[in-house]
Amino acid sequence: MTKRIFTGIILVALISMLVGTGLVMGVVYDYLGEKIDNELHDEALMVQTALKLEGENYLDVLKADETLDSRITLISYNGEVLFDSEVSPSSMENHMGREEIEEAVLQGEGYAVRHSATISKDTRYYALKMDDGNILRVASEHYSQLALILDTFGVVIIIIAIMMGLGIIISARITRGIIKPVNDIDLDAPVIPDGYDELAPLLQRINQQNKKIQGQMSNLKKQQNEFNIITQNMSEGLLMIDKDKEILTYNKSALSLLDAEDCNQSGSVLQLNRSEAFRNSVEKALDGKHHREMLVVGESICEIIANPVLDKGKVTGAVLLIIDVTEKEKGEHLRREFTSNVSHELKTPLTSIYGVSDMLTTGLVKQEDVAGFAGTIKEESARLISLIEDIIKLSQLDEESIPHEKHPVDVYGVAQDVIRRLDAKAKRENVKVTLSGSSVSIKGIESVVDEILYNLCENAIKYNKPEGTVDVQVNRIGDECIIKIEDTGIGIPKADLSRVFERFYRVDKSHSKATGGTGLGLSIVKHAVSYLDGTISIESTENIGTRIILKFFTI
Amino acid sequence: MIIMRNRFDMQLDNLNNELITMGALCEEALTFAVKGLFDEDLEMAKKAVFAESEIDRKEREIEGLCMKLLLQQHPVAGDLRIISSALKMISDMERIGDQAEDIGEIAQYLIGHDLPHEENLKKMADMAVMMLTQSIDSFVKKDLELAQRMILEDNIVDDYFFKVKEDLIEMIAVSPEKGQMYLDLLMIAKYLERIADHATNIGEWVVYSITGEHPEDN
Fold this sequence. Notes:
The complex is a heterodimer of chains A (555) and B (218).
Chain A: H1 2-54, H2 56-64, E1 71-75, E2 81-84, H3 99-107, E3 109-116, E4 121-129, E5 135-143, H4 145-151, H5 153-183, H6 200-232, E6 237-242, E7 247-250, H7 252-258, H8 276-286, E8 291-297, E9 300-311, E10 314-324, H9 326-361, H10 370-399, E11 407-410, H11 411-429, E12 432-437, E13 441-444, H12 446-462, E14 469-477, E15 480-487, H13 494-497, H14 521-531, E16 535-541, E17 545-553
Parallel strand pairs in A: 12-14
Antiparallel strand pairs in A: 1-2, 1-5, 3-4, 4-5, 6-7, 6-10, 8-9, 9-10, 11-13, 14-15, 15-17, 16-17
Chain B: H1 7-38, H2 42-73, H3 77-110, H4 118-141, H5 144-152, H6 154-174, H7 179-211
Helix pairs in contact in B: 1-2, 1-3, 1-4, 2-3, 3-7, 4-5, 4-6, 4-7, 5-7, 6-7
């Protein structure tokens, strides 16, 4: 704008100067012409008077006068040149057709101007009809308009240059003066400066737009905040990318699930993870296809759900949802393991029952062996029943379908009862079982507490060494009932410690029948303890012993 | 805020993405090869061999991209450094792919044989995998410090190579009838050592693309 105003002013100045100069030149030329005409008129009158007084002799004087500026010609009434102060009259043509002569013949005097392009000069003529009918013509040469301009060109240019210089300085100042108030306008809160009323509609519009933009911005910010709050608090990872695989946004969960470092929400998405599964998901989504894939990150397993973002049928980006499915996958794995274990555990006794009964049916068994075979069927059936009972107990605890009414249970009393029942077994295994502590009551179900203690004590005896001990302590500490069951048995290897509560998990893996049991005992204990809102912890050293600590709230 | 990006920037981003992908392919190929060798997993060993052609294809793609950028955009200063180091990096990556393929091939033959004293070789392989991961990481994150640290780790792999070599010499002396297998293992150790060298080169090009100075010049 500054430039435009500046050039505008300069242009106006230049045009005015040129036009002014031209006009002045014209006026000067006219004035000079008029003045010359007057002089020619006066001179003609003088020559006429002299001719009257001195006659033909005066013409000779004129001819001899070298200082004479003007050209004097005497022409007869029929146009024949009688005398000329510069050229011989005989060489001159008839002058009757000349404009000034014709005028003088008719009106007594005549003026004419003739331009000679070759010498860039104008010749002004004045013709006077004398009393004797002859015509006296006086002529004078002077510069033409163009010559006048060309003659003064250098000076004019210098003047124009000076004027331009001044013009530039002044225009710059003026321009600055005009622009400054406009520049000083605060566009956030525009105030119309004095003398700039023309800007009023524009500034008012800006004001309105400002308000509108502020409103929209605050709305957008609000929405952005809401979006951020929602996405940042999502446990699922959310990741958005554009079609060039550049990150648009992600939430904290995405970073933690991908185990990636923060990269300020910018750059290539492959910074976060570059595994095949991840790349594949990104590629597929940017190809416009919905894609799901499992991604292993360290110890955990994530599921990536990748969806393309389409705009008018064109892919403009992709949204990736990352879900932690570690627990689900593990659960699934456990479930499959449980199913296969249950089938195996159920099938083993059934197979032997079937085999034995088959032999009995076909009469292949000698009479004296029938009792023995029947015993096997009984044993295996008993094992099957106990297995099914255990599974039922577990599913009851799982489903929480055991009667809900909880009554005060004396843990010490239950422990005494359990130890009494296991006495025979302990003696058989040559293990000494001791009980210490005091009577502590908890709110629970007696059969469940009995189940817990029976299972744990039975294990402690079963997996003990000959001459070993099992020490059961029941104590009250604060408002907690602490039950410790310590044995001096074979212990559990460290690697298996975290898995002993899993269904059918056995440390010895052989599923041998030597120790009996179903492999569900500790799993039942764990479920039963949590059913009674208690906790169980286990410490063990291989070949030294195991210590199990149970904690329940007392009444 | 919408950021206007010009075509050149987009092409550079594309180059970056392609380089990360190629790096990831190399990591995968090496991991497959090492798994195939130590877990005696035939599938993995085959995957390592298969990955090589993919890596080669990626190399040609990236090379074409770099040439296009050089010819059409006439990059200068930092941009030129990025492209020239990309060209160098892809040849190192391509070599890594080749060597992972070689390890994969040997691993296929070794399945079923008991690898003797594999401890040092295993440590060496883990170290090489780690160095490669770090070199690609340093490129992805433009992490100068990580790149410089990684370059120094090359010596550890070299030391392991000598240990493995000594182990194998001893073993050949004890049971010369298994000489063929020991030589195969020596080849694998050499490949791993070369892979570590190429990873170091990648790290050096990362340093160069960030600072403009190649570490070996100092």
